[in-house]
Model the fold of this input.
Amino acid sequence: MAIPSDSVPALVPAVPAEPPSTEPPSTEPGVRAEPPSPGPPLNTRRLLLRPVRDTDLDAVTRLWTDPDVRRHLGGPVIDSVIRIRRGRIVAAPGFHAVVRAEDGVVLGLVTVEPGARGGETEVSYQFLPEHWGRGYAREAVGAVVAWTLEGTPSVVAVTQEGNQRSRRLLEAVGLEYAESFVEWDAHQVLYRRRA
Done:
């Protein structure tokens, strides 16, 4: 499903872009060898997407423990796993803290994982419940999908079949239903968008 170009938020580097990488290409054309790092923070109309910082850890921990956020993600994460994740997520490639530009509040997290699904890049996201229904997730996910497609031929996202909000979001940013399957003892749906 193609969407009008004006319905996906523009992704604007907050600082001038870095010169192209001189690293050798990955073994598969169009697929990044490592998780992408956004380099400079990326702006949309209302949001800043940047690497996770130490000061974001309380908000990110809430994403992992909030029952509403985790309803379709297997439930709240246990304490021992949270401790490990907190030690690894700060400045980790592929993890984007979604920050409201006007006041610096962390709204959620968007993650990009190259090769996660059969060699395709997977985008996933979580937002705190008090920020649902305001279009922030659509703005952030749409921007990250568009940015990711600049360096890879396709992007996929997976959500539980019953998570209608997430399915609507994926369709709104141009991903199309591709397949259904069972994973983690739940019915899942995979969506895809090609460059």
In short: The longest strand covers residues 106-117. Residues 1-38 have pLDDT under 50 and may be disordered. The longest helix spans residues 136-148. Strands lie at 12-13, 42-43, 47-51, 95-100, 106-117, 120-127, 154-160, 176-183, 186-194.
